[in-house]
Amino acid sequence: KEQAREKDLPEAGKALPGNDIDKSKNDVLAGKVSLWRGDITKLKIDAIVNAANSSLLPGGGVDGAIHKAAGPDLRKECKDLNGCKTGEAKIAQGYKLPAKYVILTVGPKGEYPADLKNCYVNSLTRALEKNLRTVAFPCISTGIYGYPNENASHVAIHTVRQFLEEHSEKFDRIIFCVFLDVDKNLYEQVLQTYFPV
Ligand code: ADP
Fold it and tell me: pTM higher than 0.90 for the full model?
């Protein structure tokens, strides 16, 4: 019920860049995003984003990998965070990870673009609050949660573009950390759409 309400929000879906893209910022913003393929737990940056579940307790996929690499102290901190709703984001320390912080966000189960957009906006807002300047995102919701990869890549990249237009001076780099061939290929294409050089 609740999810049906969100499915058709035009703004959060695969809207191609138009009036909401400030072309004068293309050069600056293109230098602020990267595509990197590999294990997000290896990144020595300010924050990595975890595609968590609403309990914030260790699950599978990228969540399992992050908890495994961070060690049990992350689970302990997460236990005290009282869970997280879909689209929201919370922050914890990185513990044994090379990254200083883990931002925990809960993606939608299925294709709900407004929720997925909120994951990116709220994760970047948590980073902003702590002056974290380098942040990496996995392909939220596109694994176990089943969001179609191509549409998810549009929401991810478009939302980051919009956020950086407002806050570019607060970030050095946003990394899209892809894990699969399909996402590497998609992101290479879709980044050109929203971050033309
Ligand atoms: P969700 O439940 O939100 O769908 P998943 O963890 O199942 O989250 O999948 C999200 C994405 O993370 C998928 O593209 C998956 O291939 C990818 N992934 C899995 N392990 C890692 C990892 N160690 N580093 C980066 N991405 C990963």
Answer: yes
